[in-house]
Structures are given as structure tokens and as C-alpha cells.
Amino acid sequence: MKIALITDIHANREAFEACLEQAHLHGADRIALLGDFVGYGADPAWVVTMVQDLVAQGAIAVRGNHDDAVAGEPNPNLVEDARRAIEWTRAQLSAEQLDFLGRLPMRREEFGCLFVHANAWAPAGWEYILGRNEAVRSMMATDCRHTFCGHVHQPALYHLSSVGKIANFSPVPGVAVPVPGHRQWLAIAGSAGQPRDGNPAAAWAMFDLGRQTLTFHRVPYDHEATAAKIIAAGLPRALGERLLVGA
């Protein structure tokens, strides 16, 4: 079974479409959507509708901090541009869509894997996995051999040996990485809708459950048109301009 991992879409229709198309071309059997479907981008209603449709077809979906803020009360720690985007987004969604976001689980376990937006130790606290210390803390909080996260917007992969030795490396797009179950693994798929690693191409990953391999992918899309759409919608200009450079 091949599971496509897509996270941090952030209301970016063009990036989401590009990732879904490539996932299907690579033979994805299931889709796992790791949160932050809204916030920042200009197409929240379309993206939420697509997520609802995919969930109805069997996709895994978990709640991100921006989804949580739109469905409830914004986190006071959000920066001003993010808060403005949350308020704008809430006005674009129906009551049914807001209810859908608010009811999404914080975490899901299937196939011996954990799917979560931020981390395993406190999913609703929205703390970031920024390095080895946080990665170890997250892996120690679950019995699952493979944990898949979003939230950080930069692809990363960590593993923990049976004797507690932690290692990490930066994945190369298109290269399958063996992730055998005798170790614990934590993968951050990167952001589909708002990459922050200097590459504007949308990020996603594919986990091959049978082969025990993980492949990170990048897919170009018309990010210039998407940036222009964000600005035209009246959202903070910086939210569109950052798409141009992947920052």
C-alpha cells in the first residue's frame, strides 16, 4: 500500500491540485492529509470541500493549528498576518465547513503509523519539531514505528535506534529512503501550499508500507498566479510574495 502524505496546504488550490495529481500518477492507494488546510491562501472553501470529498472516499485527515483557529478562537501567539488571514478565511467558509474543521481529530493511528499535524507528545499544543530534541520527544510519546507530521513547512526525516541513538538528514526529492520498522521514524513531509525552504515547488511525500520506503517529492505549480490571487483577495501582500521564493 502506498500512502501519499500531504500537509500544510493553506488554502492553496493550485499546489493541492498539483500534489494530488502527482500522487495519483505515482500510484497512491490512500491519501493522508496532515492538517492546516486553511490560512494564508485565497481558496479556503475549495480546499475544504476537496478535503471533505477525500475523507468521504477514505482519506485520513487530522486537524492543524490554522484549522483549529478558524473553527474556534485564534491562538494569541499567531502573528498579525496570520490572524488577519484567519478572520478572512472564517468569513469564506460555511457553517458546515467550519464544523467539519472543528471535528477533525488531532491524531490518527493506522497501519502502525501515527498521523499528526504538530507532534505526538501534545498534538493540541502545536509545538514545533525543530530538531533532534523535539523529534526524540515525539517518537518517545508513541509506540508507532512511523510518525508523519507537518507544521514545520520544511521536509525532514529523523530516526531513533533501539538503543536510543537519534539521527537525521535532509531528504533528496525523488530518492526512496528505506525506513525499516526495527527503528522508529519521524518524517515531516514539508508544506504543499507554503514551502519555507527556499524552493517554491509544492512538497509532499509517499510512504510505501509494503516496501518500507519513504520518498519525498517536489512538484512545480503556477505559484506566481497563486500569489497574485492572494493579493487580489485583499489578504496581506506578504502572504502572496513569500510563495515566489518559498520563504
From TrEMBL:
GO cellular component assignments: cytoplasm
Domain Calcineurin-like phosphoesterase: 1-207
Database matches in InterPro entries: Ap4A_hydrolase, Calcineurin-like_PHP_lpxH, Metallo-depent_PP-like, Pesterase_MJ0912
One example GO MF annotation: phosphatase activity
Pfam families in UniProt: Metallophos_2
Family that this chain belongs to: Belongs to the metallophosphoesterase superfamily. YfcE family.
Name assigned to this protein: Diadenosine tetraphosphatase ApaH/serine/threonine PP2A family protein phosphatase
